[in-house]
Design brief:
Helices cover about 40% and strands about 20% of the residues. It contains 4 helices and 5 strands; from the N terminus they run ββαβαβαβα. It has helices at about 30-45, 65-80, 90-100, 115-120; strands at about 15, 20-25, 50-60, 85-90, 110. InterPro entries: Bact_StressResp_Reg, STAS_dom, STAS_dom_sf.
Length: about 130
Amino acid sequence: MSQPTPLHSPQVPVLALGDVLLVSLQGELHDGMAEQLQHEITSRIATSRVTGVVLDISGVDIVDSFLGRVLAEIASTARLLAARTVLAGMRPAVAITLVELGLALPGLVTALDVDRAMELLSQGRS
């Protein structure tokens, strides 16, 4: 396809489920792709009726400091645009790595899986 679509990254699917964006990260997310994803999510929130974002990282083996920062920035930006963010599907090894790196993810509520993340968003403000 010769014409790029600014609101869709072929690398990272961003699905609209009603007023929630479901972002499913798989494998490694390179720096450029992470930044593109951040801009895409921000644009989608700003131009639609999105009230929640679920970041599904169940397919991610490693979260480094850059990706951790990008996830926190997505949550902060979403919050400024009146949308809540839930991080779903974190593997135990990823959680341990984040703690070992001393990375806090401010503004991110966590859930064990996407179903629980959707439940949290449907319960109203936390």
